[in-house]
Amino acid sequence: MPVSTFVGRENGTWPAGTSQYEKRGIASTVPCWISENCIQCNQCAYVCPHAVIRPFLLDEKELSAAPQKFSTIKANGKELEGLQFRMQVDPLDCTGCGNCVDVCPSKTKALEMKSLESQMVEQTNWEYISKNVTYKHALVGRDKTVKNSQFAQPLFEFSGACAGCGETPYIKLITQLFGERMMIA
Q1: Residue 29, Cα to own-chain centre: how many angstroms?
Q2: pLDDT for 84-110, tens place per residue?
Q3: CA nearest 59: which of 83, 91, 41, 35?
């Protein structure tokens, strides 16, 4: 079937970011964030092949409008004074690979795998945070550390890659570092 038969897409272009609308819910277990154990290193977000676990920084206004079951902790760092930190999971896009849990350096582990059904409240939190909280990578300089790079929105997200894919984290990271200035063909 030639590309020219696709009405409205005759030139072969397709809008970016459409994978966010396909909520597959294929994982039987997904990560659960344990805020009191988190050291805010963002390594879990860094290794996630599908960009379904992300750190967010919230100001007072964003926090005041958050859903009821929405916990945060004080953000670490001088430049983050007055902000709250949250590691948010998108349970319906997670593939359940467990890379995030495995890489967590915290001695008491800040993530654990739990049943998808028990984590569905996080879908409401994901919907709130993805629509109402801004990415604040400009505050920390995303090109300075791996931790800081994860505060930028990945422009390659929710890929169709297999659970635990080792290649997609590289693509995701390069879009977080240089996304606005690169073309993928």
Answers
A1: 17
A2: 999 999 999 999 999 999 999 988 899
A3: 83
Q: What is the DSSP string of 6-32?
A: STT-TTS---TTGGGG------SEEEE
- For the beta carbon of residue 171, count every other beta carbon within 10 angstroms: 18
Residue 38 DSSP symbol: -
Alpha-carbon distance of 120 to 90, in angstroms, equals: 9
pLDDT exceeding 90 applies to what percent of the chain? Answer: 59
Q: How far apart are CA 53 and CA 1, in angstroms?
A: 37
Paired tokens of 69 = 């079951």
Question: Which pTM value belongs to this model?
Answer: 0.87
- Amino acid 118 reads S
